[in-house]
User: Which sequence fits this backbone?
C-alpha cells in the first residue's frame, strides 16, 4: 500500500493514470462516492503490489454495540482477532445485566470469521454514565463480587463468549487497590475455566497523575491482575473539550512510554479511535458540544464546503476549518497518514496489538492498511 496526497487539479482518473492503479481500486479502498470528488490534501490509500511477508503478528480488538449494521460488521470482522460487545452491566447485588439489544447476531458472526467474541463489563448506571458508587460496591462487597463472577461463568459459555474485558472508568482513588483486586479475582476464577480477562486503561503518563479519570488506575497493579490491557489512547479531543486531535501522536507516545515501564509491552494493546469530531467555533467551555463524525464523513464535509485538508506534523493528524450558515467549524479526524504513524508504535515498543474504539462506522482504508502492515491473529 502507498499513500498519495491529493494535489490541486487532481481527479481520480488522473491519479489512477499517473500512479498506475486501477480506478475501481482507488474508489473502493477510499470509499469515494459518485461523482468521485476529492479534497485537496486528502490522503488516499493506493494498492500497489503484494503485502510484505515479514509482517508482525498482532492481536486486533474492536468494540461495537449490538445494533451495529450487519454490513459494517461483516466487512470488519476479517480484520479482528477479538470483537468486544459493549456492554454488559451489573446491579448492586452483582447481578449481570445484558445489553438492551440482543447480541446473539454479533457473537454468531464473530465465530463465523474466527474472531473471538468478548463480553465487555462496564459499571454504567441508568443514565449511561460510569457509576462511581457501583464501582465502590462491587469492589468492596465480596458477596456481590462473587455473585457477579459466578454469573459471568454461566453467561460466557451460554452465549458463546471467549473472554471478558473489564472497562471501568472514573474509579475513585480509594478504590484503586480494591479495583485491581477485583480484576485479579475475576481473572483467577475465569482463567480456571479457560477464559482470559483484559482491562481497559485510562491514558496515564505518571503514577500520581491527577484527575477523576486517572486516580483510580494503578498500571502496575492492573498489569499484574489482568492477562492483558488496552490503552485508551484517545479522547484528547472530545465532545466537550476544545478542538484538537482525538489521538495526537505526541500524546499517545507519552502514554505508551510510561505504560511499558509499568506493564510488560507484550500485554499492551494500543487504542485507536475510529472517529473524529466537528466543533462549532468559537469554543466555549461548558457550552460547546462537538459532533461525532466518521472519518469518511469528515472527507465529505471538506469536499462539500470546498476547503483543503491540512495535516498537523506534531499531532500527526488531519484537520480543516470551514464555514456553514455563518458559523465557523473545526474538524479533526483520522486518515491513513495518522493511522500509519500510530501503527509504527506497535513494533517500536513491542506491543501486543491494537484496539479500536469503536467499529460502528466502516473505514475501509484503515483495515486495508492494517492488513498490509501486520499479520492479524485469529482464534
Assistant:
Amino acid at each position: 500500500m502507498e499513500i498519495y496526497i491529493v494535489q490541486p487539479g487532481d481527479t481520480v482518473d488522473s491519479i489512477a493514470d499517473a500512479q498506475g492503479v486501477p480506478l475501481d481500486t482507488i474508489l473502493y479502498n477510499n470509499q469515494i462516492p459518485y461523482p468521485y470528488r476529492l479534497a485537496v490534501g486528502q490522503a488516499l490509500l493506493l494498492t500497489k503490489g503484494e503485502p510484505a511477508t515479514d509482517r508482525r503478528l498482532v492481536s486486533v480488538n474492536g468494540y461495537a454495540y449490538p445494533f451495529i449494521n450487519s454490513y459494517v460488521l461483516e466487512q470488519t470482522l476479517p480484520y479482528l482477532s477479538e470483537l468486544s460487545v459493549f456492554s454488559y452491566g451489573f446491579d448492586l447485588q452483582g447481578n449481570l445485566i445484558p445489553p438492551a439489544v440482543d447480541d446473539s447476531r454479533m457473537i454468531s458472526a464473530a465465530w463465523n470469521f474466527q474472531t473471538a467474541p468478548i463480553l465487555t463489563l462496564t459499571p454504567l448506571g441508568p443514565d449511561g454514565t460510569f457509576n462511581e458508587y457501583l464501582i465502590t460496591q462491587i469492589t468492596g462487597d465480596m458477596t456481590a463480587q462473587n455473585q457477579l463472577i459466578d454469573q459471568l461463568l454461566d453467561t460466557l459459555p451460554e452465549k458463546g463468549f471467549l473472554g471478558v474485558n473489564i472497562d471501568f472508568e472514573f474509579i475513585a482513588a480509594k478504590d484503586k487497590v480494591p479495583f485491581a483486586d477485583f480484576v485479579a479475582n475475576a481473572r483467577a476464577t475465569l482463567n480456571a475455566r479457560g477464559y482470559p480477562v483484559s482491562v481497559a486503561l485510562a491514558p496515564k503518563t505518571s503514577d500520581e497523575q491527577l484527575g477523576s479519570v486517572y486516580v483510580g488506575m494503578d498500571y502496575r497493579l492492573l498489569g499484574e491482575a489482568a492477562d492483558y490491557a488496552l490503552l485508551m489512547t484517545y479522547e484528547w479531543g472530545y465532545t466537550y473539550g476544545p478542538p484538537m486531535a482525538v489521538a495526537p501522536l505526541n500524546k499517545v507516545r507519552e502514554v505508551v512510554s510510561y505504560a511499558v515501564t509499568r506493564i510488560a509491552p507484550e500485554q499492551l494493546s494500543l487504542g485507536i479511535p475510529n472517529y473524529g469530531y466537528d466543533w462549532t467555533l468559537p469554543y466555549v467551555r461548558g457550552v460547546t458540544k462537538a459532533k461525532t463524525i466518521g472519518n469518511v464523513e469528515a472527507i465529505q464535509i471538506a469536499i462539500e464546503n470546498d476547503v483543503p485538508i491540512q495535516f498537523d506534523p506534531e499531532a500527526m493528524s488531519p484537520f480543516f476549518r470551514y464555514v456553514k450558515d455563518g458559523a465557523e467549524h473545526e474538524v479533526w479526524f483520522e486518515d491513513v497518514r495518522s493511522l500509519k504513524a500510530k501503527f509504527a508504535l506497535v513494533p517500536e515498543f513491542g506491543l501486543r496489538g491494537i484496539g479500536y474504539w469503536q467499529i460502528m462506522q466502516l473505514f475501509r482504508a484503515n483495515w486495508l492498511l492494517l492488513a498490509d502492515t501486520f499479520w492479524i491473529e485469529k482464534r
In short: The longest strand covers residues 56-64. Residues 142-159 form the longest helix (18 residues). The mean pLDDT is 97.
